[in-house]
Amino acid sequence: MNGSTPYDLPLLVYDGDCGFCATSLRALRRTLPSWPRATAWQAVDLGRLGLSADQAQRAAWWVTGDRPPRRGAMAFAALLAWQPARGWRLTGWLIAHPPLSWAAVVVYALVARHRRHLPGGTAACSVSPGINRPKIRSSPTSARR
């Protein structure tokens, strides 16, 4: 994070213009035993959180201040791992580690890319094509082919 932050941490940063995002957060708030401060990226000083507007438009973020912000699926894994109940913490830990983390990143990217078509989604939920694709590193042998 860049400098100190005036925000209560942990902080879940989401797209306040996205109806699907707001609907999803309301469902999570009803389901989880503990809830952090959650705020739309449009209402915070992103620079103080170590984020850019481009990053915030593309994914939800979990900001704690003691480590780099976590993006997308890893933000939600961190939210679950932050819960007081062991079951939720274990679920968060499992999602954050391979092989489940691999699937979580792909699923999050698909949901983010198509969120305008999901419950609560509107045209304001649209994200530019290609921005949520996971980065796949090629192996040294595949680069030589």
> What summary fits the major beta sheet?
4 strands, mixed
Distance between the termini: 40 Å
Low-confidence stretches: 129-145
Number of helices: 7
Please tell me the overall pLDDT.
82
Overall geometric form: globular
Amount of beta strand: 5-15%
Describe the structure using short key phrases.
43% helix; disordered C terminus; alpha+beta; 145 residues; single chain; four-stranded mixed β-sheet
Written description of the protein model:
The radius of gyration is 16 Å and the shape is globular. The chain has 145 residues and is α+β, with helices and mostly antiparallel strands. It has seven helices and four strands, in the order E-H-E-H-H-E-E-H-H-H-H. The chain has a four-stranded mixed beta sheet, covered by helices on one side.
Can you summarize this structure?
With 145 residues, the protein is α+β, with helices and mostly antiparallel strands. Helix content is 43%, strand content 9%. The longest helix is centred in the C-terminal third of the chain and has 14 residues.
Task: Chart the SSEs and their pairings.
Layout lengths: L10 E4 L4 H13 L5 E4 L5 H4 L3 H6 L2 E3 L6 E2 H10 L4 H11 L3 H14 L26 H4 L2
Parallel strand pairs: 1-2
Antiparallel strand pairs: 1-3, 3-4
Helix pairs in contact: 4-5
